[in-house]
Amino acid sequence: MDKNAFLKAYKEKNEKKTKKATKFPVPNVAPERPMFKKSTPGDIGIEIEVEGRNLPNRIAEVVNGVSWTVHNDGSLRGGLEYVLSNPCRIGDVPELINNLWQGLTRDGVRLNNSNRTSTHVHVNIQGMKINSLTSYFLLWIVYEQAFIRWCGKARTSNHFCLSNQDCANFLGENWLDSLKNGGFGCPADYRYSALNLNAMTKFNSFEFRCLDGITDPVRVINWIKLLWALREEATGNMKSPAYLVNVLSEMSPFTYLEDIFHRHELDMEFFQQIVAPYQSYREFNSECFTSFRDVQEICFAIDWDNWKEDFEKEFYENPFSNEAFQPAPRPRRRGAIFVDGLGGVEVRHGNEDEVDF
User: Do residues 79 and 51 make contact, with C-beta atoms less than 8 angstroms apart?
Assistant: First the structure.
């Protein structure tokens, strides 16, 4: 064996030893273990705030055990909030939304789509590992400004659904900090972000708050399908957050989003609606890249590819253990509340909301 071949073999052997001896860099997080145990059936939780006259107090239809519950909401004027009784499967969303819409458009009902109404969507993140969860977060941030712009002028820089840019990259810094200290909590004061990360440890969901009140059932259905498709993308093609850098560079944000729509069989007319406000695809890409620069450090915070094999491992709970895994609490902040629930009843007092799952 010549000298170069010997050095190469020695280096490869040493690298393998180093990897085996290296501890996963996120404290109290195991790469092969889901961040939150998959214990709640269902994919989506929905809360829709409505104002108007003669609003129905009951939506009778039930879809695979899921129905609409109706609640008073102190933040609305003459309004009600319609909340799923429990999480539904993504395939049941169209029927459930259409059932609600039929009740809201029956004779005598008069809707008032004020700027106080909105639609909140909870996407179940139970069962997702740290790499996929991070990718999901990054995908949202890249396209957040475009999505909020599609949601309407009343939702742009709205104090109840602020974007990451509106918050001076607080969400990005919070996530990066979480990767360093292992505490994936988020202060309750920041629950009014367009992506509410406080719901992550409180309800095991990503809560998206930026859609306006229901004015068209297809609009709500398309929105929920897109949010789910981003989750599927994060657990599929985008398992490594570092890969996002290559994809955006090679394909551009515009082309990549279009590709997501095609592969996940989303409504292409919806895609055109999202990009329509921009003068050109260059303007769209520029805004997305600006958002991405705020969080790109997360893509390199960990050598994600080095742990690929660990991320791919099946995780099996120890049947003899009574201890539930929880990421470490964030320093100097209240400990996070972990639940095995998703979806439920929202009770509001004035402009403050708290969801009890």
Answer: yes
Spatial distance between the Cα atoms of 353 and 191, rounded to a whole number of angstroms? 9
327 touches 35 (CB < 8 A): yes
Instruction: Give, in order, the Cα–Cα distances in Å from 207 to each of 53, 199, 249, 269.
Output: 28, 6, 29, 25
CA dihedral 239, 240, 245, 248 (to 10 degrees): -10
Taken as a whole, the chain contains a residue count of 357
What the block records as the tokens of 338 is: 């972990």
Confidence (pLDDT) at 177: 94
Band the pLDDT of 159: cuts 50, 70, 90: confident
Q: Please, how many CA atoms are within 13 Å of residue 312, restricted to the half-sphere of its CB? A: 10
Contact yes or no for 344/69 (Cβ under 8 A): no
What percent of the chain shows pLDDT beyond 70? Answer: 83
H or E element at residue 12: helix 3-21
